[in-house]
Every structure is written in C-alpha cells, then in structure tokens.
Amino acid sequence: MTRVIYEIVEHDGGWAYRVDGVLSETFPSHDAARRTASAGRREQRVPGDTTGISYEGKDGRWHSELSVGRDRPANLLDDDGIAGAARASGAR
C-alpha cells in the first residue's frame, strides 16, 4: 500500500506542509499549516467511485486503468521531523 507523509516545515518566512517533496503554500503559523495538512489527510481517506482513468506516462504513451475508489493510501502527519530525518538517513 502507498504511504503518504505530510510534513510540517518552515518555509519562506512561515510554515508549510510537504508531501512527496512538494511544498504547499506558505501559512502564517505552524498551527495553520498543520490544520490544513490534517484536512487534506482526512479528505484523502474518503473512498471515491471506481472509475476508468487515462494518463500519459513518462514514455509519452497513453495508459488506461481502472481506479478502485476504495484503494486509499495510508497517510500520516509528521509534525516533528522524525519521518523526514529517517528518510534523509536512509531508514524506513
């Protein structure tokens, strides 16, 4: 199962959350970034509909798949940098 980690980090004079190396917008406080990341995590857990999807792969070819709406990734909120430090050291 895919695991998604929302990390709360200092960013551009404020706070943001980072998912898979991508930063959110900057929030004025740590708490605001944490609340927004938590809301994203809750929404990510909600099952959707099973539907067909099409996407272009890195090779430039189009692919079609069936996306099962109940297959949601596990996610967690890293508010103290532990998961980020573990990734940087190569730990899992």
Helicity level: 25-40%
How far from one another are the termini? 14 Å
Low-confidence segments = 85-92
Arithmetic mean of pLDDT: 85
Q: How many structural domains in the coordinates?
A: 1
Polypeptide structure, described:
The protein is of the alpha+beta class and 92 residues long. It has one domain (3-89). The chain is 26% helix and 37% strand. It has two helices and six strands, in the order βββαβββα. The strands form two sheets. A four-stranded mixed sheet has the order 3-2-1-6, sandwiched between helices. A two-stranded antiparallel ribbon has the order 4-5. β4 and β5 form a beta hairpin. The longest helix is centred in the middle third of the chain and has 16 residues, at 30-45. The chain is elongated and about 40 Å long. The two termini are 14 Å apart. Mean pLDDT is 85; it is low at 85-92.
